[in-house]
Write a structure and sequence with these properties.
Elements: H1 2-18, H2 36-45, E1 50-53, E2 57-62, E3 67-72, E4 78-84, H3 108-115, E5 120-126, E6 129-138, E7 145-152, E8 164-171
Antiparallel strand pairs: 1-2, 2-3, 3-4, 4-8, 5-6, 6-7, 7-8
Length: about 170
């Protein structure tokens, strides 16, 4: 009986190592478009993107899914993820798993309880709305620091009851 349990545990351990790991959306930032994690995420969107090309990057817009992905042309790395709420014009609300347990129903006060005090809060620089920024972890390989930027649908810097308009996850530029 003891041997059967050990063999079963070993089989589960080996099988689990072959299974694709669930990746949180914020962990996709910095990965190449050619990685399995990014490709699986794109496949799971089950929609064809509207692709826009710029000088040094290109975007995949999934307006019906509430998401935009920005890739760097030179490296092919996913450099930013935009998650839109129903408050954002031209986009449906993103329905996928949200980063850091955030919700589009969260007020600015809720966001700051979940993420802590932002390192920076400004108004007027992103679509003339207030936004807050948080630095995340620094990648040990690339040395890049990930940033979470939450944009609120208000022009009032001290409005703690405003809701999230959209979220940008990106590497520090």
């Amino acid at each position: 009986m003891k041997h059967k349990i050990i063999i079963a545990a070993l089989a589960i351990f080996l099988f689990a190592g072959c299974m694709p790991q669930n990746t949180s959306i914020e962990n996709l930032v910095g990965l190449s478009i050619s990685t399995d994690k990014v490709q699986n995420f794109l496949d799971n969107l089950e929609a064809k993107p509207e692709i826009s090309k710029y000088e040094s990057w290109y975007t995949y817009d999934y307006k019906s899914k509430g998401i935009r992905l920005r890739f760097e042309k030179e490296s092919g790395n996913l450099s930013a993820i935009f998650l839109f709420s129903e408050l954002t014009q031209d986009y449906s609300q993103y329905k996928g798993k949200m980063p850091y347990n955030l919700s589009f129903n969260d007020t600015r006060s809720d966001v700051e309880k979940k993420l802590g005090e932002p390192w920076n809060t400004e108004k007027g620089t992103i679509y003339n709305n207030t936004y807050s920024q948080w630095f995340g972890k620094t990648d040990k390989v690339t040395g890049n620091t990930k940033v979470t930027r939450v944009i609120y649908r208000t022009k009032e810097l001290n409005d703690m009851m405003t809701k999230i308009s959209f979220i940008i996850l990106h590497e520090n530029e």
